[in-house]
Amino acid sequence: MLLTVSLVGCAAPSHRESIEPSGELSVEVMDDVAYLSGVLGSDLVNRLSDLIKENPNVTDLVLVDIRGSFDQQATMEGARLIRRLDLNTQIAPTGFVLSGGVDLFLGGVERLIGAGAGVGVHAWSDGTKVKAANLDPMDPVHATYVNFYLEMGVPERFYWFSLEAAPEDRVYFLSPEEMYDYQLVTQ
Questions:
Q1: CB atoms within 10 A of CB 146
Q2: 121 forms bridges with which residues in the sheet?
Q3: What is the rounded CA–CA span in Å between residue 112 and residue 117?
Q4: Which of 8, 48, 89, 140 has the fewest Cβ atoms within 10 angstroms?
Q5: Average confidence (pLDDT) over 68-72
Q6: Is 115 exposed, middle or buried, given 0-12, 13-18 or 19+ CB atoms closer than 10 A?
């Protein structure tokens, strides 16, 4: 399933975009669950750290509608923080994660995708001339992503699949079978 949507970007880990997110990340806590919506920015690690300091009882992050990220390095570090904090991630039923939102989701120790939820991937671009499609497969930036996915328990082939699934200005939504095949779900 290929769908054209407006993307906020998914930068290479070594790059940062200077654009400020228009759909800033919002967080709402209810009991031991934090609900996240919006766009992931450069302040993600600080936001997650503050969230847990202020709400140490939180065990689960529910991603309601994560439209992407403006700082892929921060997104990967946010996923690693989620893993270190032993938090679980879920995509809300009928919710979605796109682009860098998928990477944040992968940080969960246990990962659950609600019925009707969407997981959208595409080839990355740093917003300038650097695009995954223009790089040699042996370029070290690919290894950064591959190593991240392996660290999160996802096979390397998921990275290469995401690059082929859709160009940087479109999104491919995975089928439930693909979500399980690529081990995005742990339950």
A1: 17
A2: 172
A3: 10
A4: 140
A5: 92
A6: exposed
CA nearest 117: which of 95, 100, 97, 102? 95
Distance CA 183, CA 179 (A): 6
H or E stretch at 118: strand 118-121
Question: What are residue 35's phi and psi, to 5 degrees?
Answer: -105, 125
Contact status, residue 104 vs residue 75, Cβ threshold 8 Å: yes
Distances, alpha carbon 85 to alpha carbons 48, 61, 128, 146, in Å: 10, 11, 34, 22
Q: What is the pLDDT of residues 14-60, one digit of tens each?
A: 322 223 344 689 999 999 999 999 999 999 999 999 999 999 999 99
Taking the C-alpha atoms of residue 11 and residue 71, their distance in angstroms, rounded to an integer, is 6
